[in-house]
Amino acid sequence: MKTKKNLLTKAVSLLLSLCVITGVLQSFTLTTYSASAPEVTLYSDSSYMVKAFNEGWIDGWLKRGWKAAGGGDVKNQDLWKALIYEVNKHEVTFVWVKGHDESEFNNRCDRLAVEAIKQCRNNNGTEE
Predict the structure, then answer these.
(1) For each of the chain's 128 residues, which pLDDT tens digit applies?
(2) In angstroms, rounded to a whole number, what is the distance separating the alpha carbons of residues 98 and 56?
(3) Which of 46, 75, 103, 111 is the most exposed place for a label (fewest CB within 10 A)?
(4) Interatomic CA distance for residues 96 and 21, integer angstroms
(5) Residues 125, 19: Cα–Cα separation, whole Å
(6) pTM here?
(7) Cβ burial 19-34 (10 Å sphere, 16+ → b, else e)
(8) 79 near 18, Cβ under 8 Å?
(9) HEC per residue, the chain
């Protein structure tokens, strides 16, 4: 079932991935003189995002004019387009990791994302 919370979680995951990849590109540009794109491995517990890249979902969306396989509009197109643009500048490998498991770094990222959402809600006067 699609809920506002699910849609928000997917949007936040896309936005965080976009920030990570953009940050990698900027730091790579500032610290090296190599003309080649950096290789990036992005670990995510978002099977939605990982499958979109690894299983060709994005190619299908583009062929169908940003329509999902079921015929509805792909959600968060602005974030997807920005992420695709940045991914195309890199050699990116997407790896799925189980969420809320024993992955120290994934759990830390999850805590930071939850804190950021709460802070945004508090700053905007939105209740949880």
Answers:
(1) 455 555 556 776 777 777 766 665 555 554 455 566 667 788 888 888 899 999 999 999 999 999 999 999 998 888 888 888 888 877 888 888 887 677 777 777 777 767 776 777 777 655 54
(2) 21
(3) 111
(4) 16
(5) 24
(6) 0.66
(7) ebbeebbeebeeeeee
(8) yes
(9) CCCHHHHHHHHHHHHHHHHHHHHHHHHHHHHCCCCCCCEEEEEECCHHHHHHHHCCHHHHHHHCCCECCCCCECCCHHHHHHHHHHHCCCEEEEEECCCCCCCHHHHHHHHHHHHHHHHHHHHHCCCC
Cβ(49)–Cβ(17) below 8 Å: yes
Residue linked to tokens 């509805």? 72
